[in-house]
Write a structure and sequence with these properties.
Blueprint: H1 9-18, E1 23-27, H2 34-42, H3 50-54, H4 56-60, E2 71-78, H5 104-119, E3 125-128, H6 136-142, E4 147-148, E5 154-155, E6 163-170, H7 190-194, H8 212-218, H9 237-240, H10 259-263, H11 274-280, H12 290-306
Antiparallel strand pairs: 1-2, 2-6, 3-6, 4-5
Length: 312
């Protein structure tokens, strides 16, 4: 009877590689950063993301929700690190790179579904892709896939930070020893210095209430009084300046930028009905902001540009 991850690991690595995973590792499921997360919540840095505080206990002790879980298989899948050439004012200039292709939740979930049958005959499994009460970045560091940088992103020394993280919880024992990963940020503060809103905190967390990504994606209602710096959905500024992103991995095919975003003027969204929005952003992470949110964001950018505060 198979009871340890090492016994299925060659098959896990093979399937992962065949499906566009660039790095795969294993971790225990206890989050070594949970105390830092508690402090972040206590200071109100989660903004209006109240669901994060509701799952505090489960994040502190994942075994409370998954008493059977003994290990986590963690995968990294790269997305496009460069913006495609496009006409001025094309939508593709205004959205974060991770959203230029297909919805990463769906793509990584499908990859984890292909890995899952290797483990499932010998115990329980549960898939997570940026959902649920787990810190995927913490598990990735514990699996030896990188370190949490000053901008709170996971950085892999070989491929940088333009990656998605997927997690498969298992009931198999984790008997794999991860490679030791050094923190390579050193004295560099490029991400902190480049952030136009001062959202990056000294303890390697981000104050959501000052973050452009939070404001344009998660926050509902009127926009906070922040400079959007040309962003209508998300923000890549802290990744753009990071020297560890000089040699990124090639994107998984599903995340190649969509031609429709290059061909659509960002201002078109202001006249969209729900059907237009749903059609353009089918199977896209951009749906998270909803039509009202994207129109709010584009209107704010248009106003900033009309006052000469934003370059076309």
């Amino acid at each position: 009877m198979i009871t340890r991850l090492s016994e299925v690991w060659p098959a896990v690595e093979r399937i992962a590689r065949d499906n566009g995973v660039v790095c795969v590792g294993a971790s225990d499921i206890t989050d070594a950063h949970s105390t830092l997360f508690d402090e972040w919540l206590d200071r109100g840095h989660h903004g209006t993301m109240h669901y994060l505080s509701r799952t505090r206990d489960a994040r502190r002790d994942p075994h409370a929700r998954f008493p059977w879980a003994k290990s986590a298989i963690v995968i990294l899948v790269p997305y496009a690190s460069a913006r495609p050439d496009a006409p001025p004012h094309a939508l593709s200039h205004y959205i974060a790179r991770y959203a230029l292709g297909d919805d990463y939740h769906d793509v990584l979930d499908q990859i984890l579904r292909r890995i899952e049958p290797v483990v499932a005959p010998y115990g329980k499994t549960w898939r997570y892709v940026d959902t649920g009460p787990l810190s995927d970045r913490a598990l990735a560091t514990q699996a030896g896939l990188g370190w949490i940088a000053k901008n709170a992103m996971l950085i892999n020394e070989t491929i940088g930070s333009y990656t998605f993280i997927g997690t498969l919880l298992t009931s198999l024992e984790n008997d794999l020893v991860p490679d030791s990963v050094a923190d390579r940020c050193g004295t560099c503060t490029r991400c902190i210095d480049a952030c136009p809103t001062g959202a990056i905190l000294p303890n390697r967390t981000v104050a959501s209430e000052h973050c452009i990504s939070y404001a344009t994606i998660e926050h509902r209602g009127n926009l906070p009084d922040l400079p959007l710096a040309g962003n209508a959905f998300g923000c890549d500024i802290c990744q753009e300046v990071c020297p560890w992103n000089n040699e990124p991995a090639s994107s998984h095919p599903a995340f190649e930028p969509r031609n429709e975003y290059r061909a659509t003027p960002v201002s078109d969204l202001l006249r969209y009905e729900q059907a237009d929005f749903s059609s353009l952003f089918r199977k896209s992470a951009l749906k998270r902001a909803k039509l009202a949110g994207m129109q709010r964001n584009v209107a704010a950018l248009t106003e900033a540009e009309s006052r000469g505060m934003l370059k076309p």
